[in-house]
Design a protein that fits this description.
By secondary structure, the protein is an alpha/beta fold. 27% of the residues lie in helices and 26% in strands. It has nine helices and 18 strands. A hairpin with a 2-residue loop joins strand 9 and strand 10. Helix 1 packs parallel to helix 5. The longest helix is centred in the N-terminal third of the chain and has 19 residues. The termini are far apart. The mean pLDDT is 93.
């Protein structure tokens, strides 16, 4: 099978907006497009539209550092991300489109006894639930990344790491293009630059959406809008336990390849990897304050630079090329919200992804499509319903991504 990244023909059709669809999906990022694709494959008779206020993938999908992994902590999160990683492994072949998935592996560094304790927990849970993940010591870490400063005799020495060989990185826009093209070929209509300005309701039942291009009636409306979730849910009178924080990252000029795995440090609040082109991609925690701002800030850039130099001081003379920010919709337990909403018929949520939404895209879309098609959530997402915040059954996935969490 020939894998294609570019094609001479249009990637997807340009359609006229109709006044009714069976399913309207708000948000044309990886979650919305994956849901549309898998739903159209499940039921070829459905009339499905994906709406986005900008170009497809312009939100969190375009601003992701696109690290793919499954080494989470909870019994709810590990199987979910394990299945997403499996889908990513086969996605290029399944979609006949090269998503440039490089399974370079991942190291979560431990600098203290308490950090090592948590990493050992994750390793044991991962192994019990079928995820390739194990603890390694300083000698093996040094063999994997010879140039890294092990910080012997310094604050936060590298004492060990959780090694996750199947993890990797992917070209984020290629994943968006693959799902968009796939959805289009399954009959889904894609409508970029079509902003939803309101949601129509009748006695607690969602009946459609209002857009900048007119009103649309719909059998089901799904929100997959990442950082703008609370804005959409207010249209149906729903307050969700979500706070939106900007997350910033930066990339350096290309340099000679020297690192062949992704690295994350909770204590130093940084993660880093090197692209195939030689650039260093550097990220850290979300901003210290909630905001809808996409602006990059100097103090975050200074923090990221200082933290990465703790591990790689030889990068001090490397120039930064660009810095960017995206929006993260953070829930109190750092786990997503996927499912129906009690008291509001025909309304589906797919949100609360925080800092790890892109790695969940394939399985999130597949499970949400099954929820819409069969009317009940598949087992993988049963624990991610909105009702967990009222019944006290929280997931607590914060410990699996501390370098990107609030500190």
């Amino acid at each position: 099978m020939v894998l294609q990244l570019f094609t001479k023909s249009r990637m997807w059709r340009k359609s006229e907006l109709k006044d009714r669809y069976d399913v309207v999906i708000i948000g044309g990022g990886v979650h919305g497009l994956a849901t549309a694709y898998y739903l159209a494959k499940l039921d070829k008779g459905l009339d499905i539209a994906v709406l986005d206020k900008s170009y497809l993938g312009a939100g969190g999908s375009a601003r992701s550092t696109a690290i793919i992994r499954a080494n989470y902590l909870t019994v709810e999160g590990i199987p979910f991300f394990r299945e997403s990683l499996k889908l990513y492994e086969d996605l290029s072949q399944d979609m006949n489109f090269n998503i440039m998935f490089n399974q370079m592996g991942r190291l979560d560094l431990g600098h203290t006894e308490s950090a090592l304790f948590t990493l050992r927990q994750r390793a044991e849970f991962n192994q019990l639930l079928g995820v390739d993940s194990r603890m390694i010591g300083p000698d093996e870490i040094k063999r994997l990344i010879p140039v890294m400063d092990m910080r012997v005799g310094k604050t936060f020495p590298v004492m060990g790491a959780l090694y996750h060989p199947p993890a990797g990185v992917v070209r984020h826009d290629a994943v968006v293009w693959a799902y968009a093209r796939g959805a289009d070929r399954e009959g889904v209509e894609l409508h970029p630059f079509t902003e939803v300005t309101g949601i129509t309701m009748d006695h607690g039942r969602v009946t459609g959406v209002e857009t900048t291009k007119g009103k649309i009636s719909a059998g089901i409306v799904m929100s997959a809008t990442a950082g703008w979730t609370s804005t959409i849910t207010k249209m149906v009178g729903l307050n969700v336990p979500i706070t939106t924080y900007p997350l910033q990252a930066c990339v350096t000029e290309p340099i000679k390849p020297f690192m062949h795995t992704t690295i994350s440090s909770a204590n130093l609040h940084v993660y880093v990897y090197q692209t195939d082109r030689g650039e260093m991609v550097i990220g850290g925690p979300v901003n210290h304050y909630p905001s809808y701002s996409f602006k990059s800030t100097l103090h975050i850039l200074e923090e990221l630079a200082a933290h990465v130099l703790d591990l790689f001081p030889q990068l001090r003379g490397v120039r930064l090329m660009r810095q960017w920010a995206g929006l993260c919709d953070m829930t109190p337990d750092y786990a997503p919200i996927i499912g129906k909403v009690d008291g509001i018929e025909n309304f589906i949520l797919n949100c609360g992804w925080g800092t790890w939404g892109f790695k969940a895209g394939p399985i999130s879309g597949k499970c949400t499509a099954e929820l819409i098609h069969y009317g009940k959530p598949p087992k993988l997402i049963e624990s991610f319903g909105l009702d967990r915040f009222s019944n006290g059954k929280l997931v607590n996935e914060r410990a699996s991504a501390p370098s990107a969490a609030l500190h």
